[in-house]
Amino acid sequence: MARIEINDGYVPGSLGRVAELHGGYYHAHWGFGLFFEAKVATELAAFLQRYDAGRDGFWTIAADGRIEGALAIDGIHADGEGAHLRWFIMSDALRGKGWGNRLMDSALRFCRGKGYKKVYLWTFEGLGPARHLYEKWGFNLVEQHRGIQWGTEVNEQRFECALTQ
C-alpha cells in the first residue's frame, strides 16, 4: 500500500510533474498537444514564481513521494473577480478514490479562511466526473462558449462557487 500525503505549497519537481499529468491525460483523452502542455507549464511556473501563501494555495498529492495530483488557488484577483481554481488534476492511479474531494476540501477551506467571496474555474464540456465533483462542492455553470484557450476548439465553461463564511 502506497503512503499517500497531501503537501501544502511548492514541492520540488511539482511544476514538471503537474505539467506532465496534464499533458498526458489531455493528450490521451482529448488530443491536446504541445500548445496545451506548454501553456500549463508556463502559467504554472509564473504562478509559483509569484506565489504568496497569504493569498494563494497550492496542494499536491504524493504516493510514496511521487506527485499524483494537484490543485491551486490563484488569489491575485480574488477581491474583484474571485479566487481562481486552477491545475486540478489526478493521475490514473488515484482518480476516483476520493483524493480529488480532499483537495477540493482543502482549497475551499483555504478560500473561506481568506474571506474570499467566490471561487471560479474554467473547464470544458465533456469532463463528466470533474463536473460532477465541481457541482457536488457548490459550483454552478455560469458561462459557456466555443473557444480555443486550450489550443483545441472546445465548448469552454466557467463555473463559480459563492462562498459563505
UniProtKB/TrEMBL annotation:
Keywords: Transferase. GO terms for molecular function: N-acetyltransferase activity. It comes from the Bacteria. Residues 4-164 form the N-acetyltransferase domain. InterPro entries: Acyl_CoA_acyltransferase, GNAT_dom, NAT_camello-type. Pfam families: Acetyltransf_1 (PF00583). PROSITE patterns: GNAT. This is GNAT family N-acetyltransferase.
